[in-house]
Design brief:
- It contains 7 helices and 21 strands.
- The protein is of the alpha+beta class.
- It has 2 domains: 160 residues, no CATH class; 150 residues, Secreted effector protein pipB2 fold (2-Layer Sandwich), CATH 3.30.2450.
- The strands form 7 sheets. A 4-stranded mixed beta sheet has the order 8-9-10-11, sandwiched between helices. Strands 14-15-16-17 form a 4-stranded antiparallel beta sheet, covered by helices on one side.
- A hairpin with a 2-residue loop joins strand 5 and strand 6.
- Helix 6 runs antiparallel to helix 7.
Length: 367
């Protein structure tokens, strides 16, 4: 699979080529199309070029291929980040870079991947420190980290802005006054202080911490309806539709193990505009399930729909093939920092009909 093409005399990677664009093969001069990243037999295949007619014996530059795969791995690990290849940071040009909308502990402003292939002369310590000084953590990727068309990312091997870029401190220097007093035992009496919970985190995750369905928590949320997904067996699941005091509609998927009494819930905000994509996804899933001749690979997505969510979060629904021919139902949400929460359930016969019922009920409520 080629990972380098030529456009107007300049070398380009699949990352910088549009889905319908055609470029030239540097080895044979043939036409190359681009194929997006996907899973094949449960293994991730990074975005790559392919020969539109025939092929050629030429092989892409190994270092360039590794950089392209690294970029797509960063896209996979940090879907909310901006990913670039060969981007300048300070006086250096990084192989692959993920830049975050806001700093994230412990990575800082972003993460740099430096590919080690026939470049062992790089001074790892000095280069790492330069990136750290600019607020970027660093992961050095070796050939052993690359497996055909994927890269293994090991966070514990990364040089992190926190704490690697912090200045050295003597003793308790640099700590707040209160911390120094506590550590040095200056307080002889018990002291109570009220520490406010971070407001932005609370506003984003409050519905996961205490669901409005639990009436003893919030009485000003109105429960509109329940739509059962699994009502029998040890593990049951259902959707609860409710309205916030501001008039927003939320759909919360609940899963409960009746033997352990363990319950989980995942809330997602829906709007009227989310109904059509959801309906289209269910139609696509029904067609795929009716195709008796298909033998999809593990990880193949039958249907996926995204929900607009809130300003801080977005939601998704998916039906996908698990191992050994099983089908999974996934419902989740992710905030803009990449923190995700989801429920995974086994698909049972008739679930598509129950999901269509959910869509019909929401259409009535959101109309």
């Amino acid at each position: 699979m080629p990972y380098i093409g030529e456009r107007n005399g300049e070398l380009v990677s699949p990352l910088n080529v549009a889905d319908d664009e055609v470029v030239d093969c540097p080895a044979c001069g043939g036409h190359l199309g681009v194929r997006d990243g996907h899973y094949n037999r449960g293994k991730f295949i990074a975005r790559h070029f392919f020969h539109k007619t025939g092929g050629c014996p030429g092989e892409s530059d190994v270092h360039h291929r590794m950089k392209t795969i690294a970029c797509f791995k960063l896209n996979q690990v940090f879907p909310f980040a901006t990913v670039d290849d060969e981007r300048a940071i300070g006086d250096r040009v990084a192989d692959a870079v993920a830049t975050f909308p806001e700093p994230i502990k412990p990575f800082g402003d972003g993460l740099v991947v430096e590919v080690q292939h026939k470049h062992s002369e790089k001074a790892i310590g000095r280069v790492s420190q330069e990136y750290l000084d600019h607020g970027y953590s660093v992961f050095w990727a070796y050939q052993s980290d690359f497996h055909t068309h994927d890269m293994e990312f090991a966070p514990h091997r990364a040089r992190l802005v926190w704490p690697d870029a912090l200045p050295d401190r003597e003793g308790l220097a640099g700590y707040p006054e209160l911390t120094r007093q506590l550590r040095q035992g200056e307080f002889r009496e018990t002291s109570t202080r009220r520490v406010p919970f971070p407001d932005d985190y609370w506003q984003t995750h409050v519905l996961e911490l205490c669901s409005p369905v639990q009436g003893h928590v919030q009485h000003d949320w109105e429960v509109l309806d329940d739509v059962w997904l699994h009502s029998t067996g040890r593990r049951i699941a259902w959707f609860t539709i409710y309205q916030s005091p501001g008039g927003d509609t939320y759909v919360e998927l609940w899963g409960k193990d009746k033997q352990t009494n363990h319950t989980r819930h995942t809330p997602v905000r829906w709007t009227f505009e989310d109904l059509q994509p959801f309906g289209d996804a269910l139609s696509a899933a029904r067609r795929a399930l009716d195709d008796a001749e298909s033998d999809p690979e593990t990880g193949t997505v039958l249907a996926r729909s995204q929900f607009s969510g809130t300003g801080e979060t977005r939601g998704w629904f998916a039906l996908y093939h698990r191992e050994q021919g099983e089908i999974g139902v996934q419902y989740g949400r992710q905030d803009r920092r990449g923190n995700a929460r989801h429920l995974d359930l086994a698909y049972r016969e008739g679930d598509l009909g129950r999901l269509e019922t959910l869509g019909q009920r929401l259409a009535e409520l959101l109309a």
